[in-house]
Amino acid sequence: MSNTKPYGQSMKSKGGFSRLFSALRYTWDGLRAAAKHEEAFKQELMVVVPLSIVAWFVPVELYQRALLFSTLQLILIVELINSAIEANTDHISMERHPLAKRAKDMGSAAVFLTIVIALAIWGTVLWQRFGTK
Fold first, then answer.
1. Within its chain, how far is the Cα of 51 from the centroid?
2. What would the pLDDT profile of 76-117 be if each residue is shown by its tens digit?
3. Which of the residue ranges 9-23, 59-73, 82-96, 118-132 would you say has the lowest mean pLDDT?
4. Greatest distance between any 2 Cα atoms in the chain
5. % of residues, the chain, pLDDT over 90
6. Mean pLDDT value across the chain
7. Domains in the chain and their CATH numbers?
8. Residue partners of 85: CB distance under 8 A and separation at least 6
C-alpha cells in the first residue's frame, strides 16, 4: 500500500500563510486562464476595465460609485463561474447531452442577467445624476 495521498486529498488546504499564498496563486492562475482561454471574458474585460476606472470619477455619491464599480465586477465574477461550469462540463464529456446543454445555457443566462442588472444600475445612477429634472 502506498503512503502517498490521493490527488484530491493532497490538494486540500493546510492553513496558515501558505494557504493564503496558495489561494492567491490559484486566483491569479484562474484569472490568467480566463483571460487566455475564454473569449467572452476577454470581451467583458475590454468593457469592464475602462468602465471600472470611469466609475470612480463619475460625480455621484460614494454609495452610487460603489454600485457602479461593483456591478461591473459582478459581471466578471459570474462569467468566471460560467466558464468554470463550461470547463467542468467539457471535462466530463465533450458529447452533446441535454443536461450539459442545460448547465451551459443556465450559466450563460446568469451572465446575461448580471449584465442586465449592471445596465439598470448604471442607467439609473447616470439618469439620476445627468437626466432632465
1. 16
2. 999 999 999 999 999 999 999 999 999 999 999 999 999 999
3. 9-23
4. 77
5. 82
6. 92
7. 39-130 (1.10.287.3610)
8. 103, 104, 106, 107
DSSP tag of 131 = S
User: How many other β-carbons are positioned within 10 Å of the β-carbon of residue 19?
Assistant: 12
- Residue 44, C-alpha cell as written in the block: 467583458
Confidence of residue 16 (pLDDT cuts 50, 70, 90): confident
Task: For residue 79, indicate whether it is catalytic.
Answer: yes
Cell of 32: 490568467
Choosing from 38, 39, 79, 95, which is the catalytic residue?
Answer: 79
Contact 71, 121 (CB under 8 A): yes
Contact 59, 73 (CB under 8 A): no
Sign of CA dihedral 6, 10, 12, 15: positive
Please, what sign has the CA dihedral across residues 73, 75, 78, 82?
negative
